[in-house]
Amino acid sequence: MSAAPPRSHPALAPLLEMVGTWEGEGSGDYPGISPFRYGERLVFAQVGRPFLTYAQRTWHPESGAPMHAESGYLRVVPETSPLRVELVVAQPTGLVEVDEGELRDGVLDLVSTAVAATSTATPVDRVRRRLWIENDVLHVTLAMAAGGVSETDHLYSRLHRVAAAN
Ligand code: HEM
To answer: Is the pTM of this model over 0.90?
Structure first.
């Protein structure tokens, strides 16, 4: 039997700080809905290829009831500067997002190039996600254009590392 492959890929070096399990709280809003808060857990893990696996789940901060969840892959384009990054992510609301962007000055800035929706999903025209780490806090924002509303903030969460990188 062959040996297990190395768990890290050199192209991931600029994103290694993100690897691990993060937890915290967020808040959300959007025209036409009531503002809300949520608990969130994010896991970025590496498998030895130039991408991180990404899994997120959220819950109601008082009842603990499950809210949004999503999972996908954060891909880096090796030897690019600034580092080009791509995200593919699937959501149980019937959406699949393809985002592209770059890591610049410590901020990962991703904008959708496609958001596909199942026939029963609420369609979303465009998504922008930003992630950055400041003083050991992972900040995550999401803005979207949907339902005739132009790009407007939907989510902002602040997460602390609760488990080490793999
Ligand atoms: C932390 C993750 C998220 C949480 C906790 C969350 C939570 C919520 C909540 C509570 C609402 C109001 C629902 C209602 O009043 O019926 C909402 C609406 C909405 N969310 Fe999110 N959301 C999350 C992520 C996303 C993402 C990633 C997208 C799309 C890329 C998205 C798209 C929408 C849309 C389109 C609506 C309006 C739904 C409608 O009018 O039926 N959400 N979200």
So the answer is: yes
- Give the pairing type, strands 126-134 and 95-104: unpaired
Please give all residues whose beta carbon lies within 6 A of any atom in ligand 1, as ranges: 26, 28, 30, 33, 36, 38, 40, 58, 67-68, 91, 95, 97, 122, 124, 127, 142, 144, 146, 154-155
What CATH number does residue 32 fall under?
A: 2.40.128.20
CB of 99 closer than 8 Å to CB of 129: yes
CA–CA separation, 86 and 125 (whole Å): 18
Task: Indicate the top mutation candidate among 27, 29, 33 to test ligand 1's pocket, ranked by most ligand atoms within 8 A of CB.
Answer: 33
The range of the structural domain enclosing residue 70 comes to 10-163
Q: What is the mean pLDDT of residues 131-159?
A: 98
* Total domains in the fold of the chain: 1
